[in-house]
Amino acid sequence: MENLNVQSLTPDRWDDFEALFGPRGACYGCWCTHFRVPTSQRKTMDGDAKKRFMQERIAAGPPPGLLGYIGERPVAWVQVGPRSELPQWNSQKTVSRPLDLADAEDSSVWAVSCFFMNAQDRGRGYSHRMLSEAVNFARASGARLLEGCPIERTKQSKSVGLYVGSLRIFEAAGFSEIAKRKDGRPLMRLVL
C-alpha cells in the first residue's frame, strides 16, 4: 500500500473533500448526509442542498471525519464521530440502532458510519488504514465506545455498497459483534 497520509476534515480541507466526492457528491449525490439528516428531510434536499449542509457542518466543527491522501491527492474518506450527530444511524428502524437508547445521546459513544473511495482507489487496503486512524481519532477525542455496522459480503469487492465498511476490516481492527438484526449486517463495537 502506498503511504496514506490521514488528516482531520477541517474547513481548510473542504476543496479536497469536494474533489474526492466529485461533482455529483459521491454515492448518488449523498455528500455523506445519509446518516446525518433524517430521511424525511433528506428526501426534500437536492444535491446542492446536501453539499451545503455538509460544508456548513464541516465549517461548524469539530471535524466530522478524516481524509486520506496519497501525496496531495485525496483518495479516501471515513465519517467518524458521536452517535448523537447521526439521527438515521440511531433510528429504531435501522440495523445500526444502539443497544441502549441512551447511547444515541451519549457523547462518548461514537460511530464509524461511512467510507468513500473513488472506484480507481478501491481494493488497495485504504479502508483498513482509515479505520485504524478513525479509532485513534475517536480515542483522542474522548470516545469510550466506537461502533460500526459493516456489511459481511458484497457481490463485487469494489462495490459502492461497502460505504459502511466490510466486516473483515472491523474484525481486523479488533471490533466485536454485539448484535445482528439483519443477516450480513452485524453491529460491532470496540471498547476504547
From TrEMBL:
PROSITE patterns with a match to the protein in the record: GNAT
Domain of life of the organism encoding this protein: Bacteria
The N-acetyltransferase domain, residue ranges: 4-192
GO molecular function: acyltransferase activity, transferring groups other than amino-acyl groups
Protein name (database record): N-acetyltransferase domain-containing protein
